[in-house]
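Entry 14. Structure prediction run on the chain below.
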Amino acid sequence: QVQLVESGGGLVQAGGSLRLSCAASGRTFSSYAMGWFRQAPGKEREFVAAISESAGITNYADSVKGRFPISRDNAKNTVYLQMNSLKPEDTAVYYCAASDRIRGGKWVYEYWGQGTQVTVSS
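Output returned:
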């Protein structure tokens, strides 16, 4: 198993930036693909970005493509989400998740952090 703890959330004005971090402990971090998801009030959780075990593959939701690069440092057991050009509609609780298997060509995320709040004011 792996335990995940997010940090870096906060309140920021539109157009600003934040960097989220997700620190992992437990099983070997480099054996997991990692993803970021978010959930806004009254909405379902949605995919934001993902990165493969060796960082060779990244995927993004269209809504954040070009603004939220995902990266990881396997030596530090940490995955990052750099959030640039933030918009009020990016306001949500952001979760990181870990996957060690694929089903139907998609990563299956079995381990989740507790989330960190990001609020973007207009």
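The radius of gyration is 14 Å.
Filed with the rest of this week's runs.
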